[in-house]
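Assemble and predict.
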Amino acid sequence: MSGFLDRLPAVRGKLLANEQLAPFTWFRVGGPADVLFLPKDEDDLGDFLAKLDPIIPVTVLGAASNVIVRDGGVAGVVVRLGPAFGKVSSNGLRVTAGAAALDGRVSIAAANAGIAGMEFFSGVPGTIGGALRMNAGCYGRETKDVLVEARALKRNGERVTLKNADFHFSYRHTEADEELIFVEALFEGEKDDPVKIVERIEALKSRRETSQPIRDKTGGSTFANPDPPGTPNQRSSWKLVDEAGMRGARRGGAQVSELHCNFLLNTGDATAADIEGLGEDVRAAVLAKSGVELRWEIKRIGRPAVDATVEGYLAKDA
Ligand SMILES: Cc1cc2nc3c(=O)[nH]c(=O)nc-3n(C[C@H](O)[C@H](O)[C@H](O)COP(=O)(O)OP(=O)(O)OC[C@H]3O[C@@H](n4cnc5c(N)ncnc54)[C@H](O)[C@@H]3O)c2cc1C
């Protein structure tokens, strides 16, 4: 892979060939990135993208709390944004946050500045970049409710600003171009007493502690609820999974959480294939039981392990 590295534009940050991604992910599974790029700052990222051969795929990861990286790793360049992209500041009722800032930090910064409305971020263990891509939210509020605009880089390095409406947000989804790398977001909330805001954050955190396996190797909600919030008689994915008898189901080292059955777990030695395969078992069981085709909320990226491919199978016989 070092030949590939030699063909990439020079950077001020780091380019690491064949770098394992599993340690960065919540599930702790998955193969290496062909090349992992840790840009020094926004200019470094922009210059790199502008000079990079357009044929080379680029994937961006945040806290990897919503992805399964497959066992064969990720082709091309994987970008992880570092501290230069993690700044958070407030002005009046507005908060500016770098895309690498953890959502929890944003909720606390807003609370300290007496800005209400971003408490929900304390329950989402990802970064602001991931929140923009996923329209992350919980307990009745979503990223779209507080976002004013976001800055991003296109695949060719060009800088763009997207207004809230440009995202065409829907439940855990945005129509924003898949190739955009978000670098910063501007949020707006309402005025409130910091003490009251912090109390709400604490209440939200303790509610989550008892209802979700947040200390396990997991990827959060596996499947989006089939009906958008506010739909009369909205069906929850966890209920459909439970009704299909899949609570606690296993495949290899992967298990459906007993505590919250819309969460999949790596119980210790799971492969990405175990986790994704178990997810497909769950989808099949739900379809058979209730006729609902669950949509993956977790993003699955990369290639299967070599021995799970036709090439690998043929190589064994050679
Ligand atoms: C225990 C647990 C609880 C969770 N609870 C919730 C919850 O209550 N509500 C909720 O909405 N989610 C929840 N999640 C899921 C997850 O935390 C969110 O989806 C989060 O927004 C993902 O952010 P991330 O930085 O981890 O993104 P990643 O998982 O790294 O990536 C997710 C997607 O975002 C893209 N992405 C990441 N950064 C950028 C960027 N800078 N620019 C462009 N695209 C980017 C990636 O390419 C990928 O497609 C939970 C996860 C866990 C593990």
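The chain has three domains: 2-83, 86-196, 213-301.
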